[in-house]
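Exercise 7. Given the encoded structure of a 212-residue chain, write a plausible sequence.
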């Protein structure tokens, strides 16, 4: 079983459980305790598949490659809101009338899994920036590659790198989210020079001043 199968499997499992629960809400095919037991058992399988997916990704990220942990405020806010919303919905459903109360365990499973996986990813530096020969790899909720050939200009202001792409989109890298600020600054500056990416004279001076 690989990461893709685990990811697809857990989503299918969750949809199946949701479908069974919704059908039961309106048709009452199962007793409440029986449905809760099914939800708990399915929840354990869902958590197992989520952990397998994480561990598989963790193994790949643990390969001997230098990476810079990068956990931005936007990622933290997104993860916190996502967990909080599912917890809030679970609480509301728990105090709802009996038939809709059956839905609250699903929201609890999702919220707990999201919180646990986010903490594990943060603890093991699974949110990061990696500098390769001709591209940057940014990993948070998604994997983004920024190739040197698609960058029009690099600016550096207020400890923030602005990577302006040729399609006029901008990728920002804030040093405040990095633990190894000086090393990252030096490595990225060398990467920019090595790939002959345009860097304004003012930005180059600010970078050099910071490294001194």
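Solution.
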């Amino acid at each position: 079983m690989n990461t893709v199968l685990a990811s697809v499997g857990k989503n299918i499992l969750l949809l199946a459980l949701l479908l069974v629960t919704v059908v039961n809400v309106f048709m009452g095919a199962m007793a409440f305790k029986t449905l809760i037991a099914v939800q708990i058992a399915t929840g354990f399988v869902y958590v197992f598949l989520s952990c397998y997916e994480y561990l598989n990704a963790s193994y790949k990220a643990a390969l001997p490659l230098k990476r810079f942990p990068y956990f931005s405020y936007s990622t933290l806010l997104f993860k916190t809101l996502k967990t909080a919303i599912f917890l809030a919905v679970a609480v509301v459903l728990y105090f709802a009338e009996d038939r809709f109360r059956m839905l609250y365990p699903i929201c609890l499973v999702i919220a707990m899994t999201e919180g646990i996986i986010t903490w594990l990813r943060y603890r093991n530096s699974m949110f990061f920036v990696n500098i390769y020969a001709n591209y940057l790899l940014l990993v948070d909720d998604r994997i983004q590659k920024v190739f040197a050939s698609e960058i029009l200009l690099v600016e550096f202001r207020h400890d923030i790198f602005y990577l302006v792409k040729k399609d006029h989109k901008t990728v920002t890298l804030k040093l405040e989210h990095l633990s190894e600020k000086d090393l990252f600054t030096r490595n990225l500056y060398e990467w920019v020079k090595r790939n002959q990416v345009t860097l304004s004279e003012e930005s180059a001076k600010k970078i050099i001043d910071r490294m001194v």
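Remark. The CA atoms of residues 34 and 40 lie 10 Å apart. Students should compare their own answers with the one above.
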